[in-house]
Amino acid sequence: MADVVWGHPSGEVEISFPERCGSMDQWPEATPQTIAELAEALPKLIKAFETAVQRATPQSPPKVNFAGMTTNERLHVAGFMEEWDAAARAHNRERMIEILNAVGLGSQADQIVAAILPKKS
Length: 121
What we know:
Elements (H helix, E strand, L loop, with lengths): L1 E4 L7 E5 L14 H24 L15 H7 L3 H9 L3 H10 L6 H8 L5
Helix pairs in contact: 3-4
């Protein structure tokens, strides 16, 4: 088995050999034929890896179901925790609201930010 796959939070698979090989019990046996097929697929796998590295991000944004998560859980899962903390320290209301929109809390963004930051004078 060989994959070009992104880690947390997206888990997006760019390419895999063999295609649609899910769990370990579905992995093919390392027969001479399988090794030959892998050798044939290797240039395509390498090109996908190089493209992913140059792009430095998954092809599509992570698809996260935020239902039932707290604000902090959403920020952590989406990879916004450090950026959120920096925006809060800088009292950057606009950026905080953008981040909350990105994690599905747009309708509550004003209230959340107001609870964290002091009112404007």
